[in-house]
Structures are given as structure tokens and as C-alpha cells.
User: What shape does this take?
Amino acid sequence: MKKTIALIATLDTKGVETKYIKDQFITHGKRVIVIDSGILGEAHDIEPDFSRYEVAKHGGYNLDEIRNSGSRGEAVSQMSECVRAVIEKLYTERNIDGVMCVAGAGSMIAVPGMQKLPLGFPKLLVCPLLSGERVFEPFVGTSDIVLMHSVVDILGINGISQKIFDNAIGAMIGMVDNYTPAENEYENHIAITMFGQTTPGVMSAMKKLERSGYTCVIFHANGVGGRSMEELIEKGVFAGVLDYTLSEVAGEELGGLNKSSPTRMEIAGKYGIPQVIVPGCIDFLDVFPVDMEKPEYSDRKVYRHSPAIYLVRVKKGEMAKLGKVFSRKLNASKGPVEIVFPLKGLSQANAEGKALYDSEADNAFLESLKKNISKNIPVHVLDKHINDQLFAEFAAERLLALMRKKD
Assistant: This one.
């Protein structure tokens, strides 16, 4: 059976380009389902498989309602719901093997539906907005959408745009030809969070878990990584969670760059997944160099993590606050959970003699945690540093014990 690619574009302005891409896919033996995501005007140069009128209907609207919604932003939001409904229908019915979108600002209509497709399912966006000083989260979210900068605007086929489109076509063909859904492909997977400041400890824990037959999946605790992990937890991917690096919780509560969602550190507990909590990297906030001029950072200990990032020490009172936050989140857990705390430092730069060392502030977190945590949740305190091998192996062993007990 031919592999099928859903091709999304606003056909009132991207008809010529869409036809070229469709014809090339067909030449390479693929089937194409063209989805018109346009709102204004009419389709030109190519007949879609899903007209904009049909797309609107799949989302519970008629197109005139969307056109008269009152603002461009509202119209885009409504049409994106409709495109998502079409994509979900095609995917659920197993009628597509990949999704590609060619668009400018109209990509915001297509990407919400593409972001909902499973990890690994081929999805590619070609767009002139994928460069410069832009935030890319609106395009990617927590998904694995492949982004290709079109260099030129998408209007016509020329010597430059054709090269870009041909590369995108080749990339898409390669992805759909190599993608094979597997049953139970994530069996015995464990999620672990990590930051550069906890890498040695995570590597030691990972080795121990792998020796016990598990596959470890590491998430960078940068704000997006934690959300990605918890979305996969909700999908039942993981047998256990070693939440070794909680910088995102500190960021969400106190500021800095690594902000996550308000529900960070609550999802594993909600679904009863065995978890071990290590409060790694809650002792600092990530900030840009320019932010160091702000008054709230002027009297803090500082560590230069990279040319682009400074780490500023979290103060004693703030650490006590985090102890209460951790307790509130973990006390609601429906599954087994334990906490492992390293007395000799919570990050690489937080060790005796290092730039962020402040045992008094760290102990304020620990005492606040002990005071507020449920008596049913063990708190293990080790006279080790977070990156010591024995500490990391102990944390891994506690997770293994929780998973064995659940089984």
C-alpha cells in the first residue's frame, strides 16, 4: 500500500506551491491528501481533498462563521480547531503516514493539530518564519515537528524555493518510509530529568537502572523538558520516574528562564506512577546576562554556567517556600513516592568551596519539607553530594524498590 501524506496549505495563496509538492510526492510513489486551511478567498491551481468548507464543518463551524468571528486571531484559532479535527480523524482511521505543512503565518492554523500527533509520527513544517529572534515554542510545543526555514517567502516556484521544497519532499519521504509504529515500544522505560549541573549523578543512576533491564529517557529540565515528560506520563509511557532535577519548579515559583507549567511534579502522582524525587538544581535560577542588572539579583551568589546563562543562588526564605511547594504537590500523589536529599549540595556549583554553596539555605528547604510532607512519604537524607555515585545509585535503587513493590 502506498504511503500517504497529508499536505496542509492555504490554497488561496499557496496553490501553485502545493501542486508542485503534491506532484513530486506522486512521482515518488506516494499518495497525497490535500487539506485547505485557508479562511479568506478561494482555492486556486489545485483541487483539495478537504476544502476549507469541509474543514470548517469537521470542527463544528461553517466557514462564514469563522470569517465573521470579529478578528483575525479568533478566526485563526477557530480554523486551527477544524484542521486539528481533520488531522485527528485521518490519523485515528490510519489513513495517513505523515503530515506536512507549507505556510507563512498560516502555519499557526496547522501546527496545533500536528503537535497532537504521537512522538515519532512524521511531521514537517516549511515556513519563512523559522529563523531570526523568534520564540519557536508556538511552532513546536513539546512535539517533535521538524522545522525547515524556507529562506524565501512562499510565493511561486523559482530556483531557490524549488531547492527548499525538494529537500522538504525528500525529508518527508524518508520519514514516512522509515516510520513503523510498534506495539509496547516503551515497555520498561524510566523518565529522568537532568540539567548540566546534575549530569554526573544522572549518568550514574542511569547505569544502575539500565543494569536492571530498564531503558532510561532523559529530559532536559529547561521548562519544555518537564512538560514533555509529563505529557508522555499521561500517555502511559513510563514505568517509573526519577525526577532528579527540579529547576523548573524553582523557575515556576521564583522566576528565571526555566519555568514549567503550574502542574509540574504533579502528573506522575496523579496517575500513580512510582517516583523518586531528588531536588536537584532548585538552588539557583537561570537568567540571561542582561538580567544581572536587575535589583533582585544584585546581592546573590552567581555562577556563570555559559556565555549566555548565569545561575543566581536561591535565598534561604525562598528555599523554605519551595519546601512547602514540594510537600503540597507530593502529598497529593496517588502512587508510591520517596524523596532523596543530598546534604552536601544540590548542584555541581553548589558544593563546599564552590560559587553557589549555601548549606544553610539548602537546610531551610529540607526542614520545610520535613515539616510539611506527609508521614507516608519517606525522606532519605544522605551525607553526600547530588553528583556522588553512591548518592545517585541509592536514588535509583529506591525507584527500583518502588517499582518492584507495585508489581
Q: What stands out?
A: The mean pLDDT is 94.
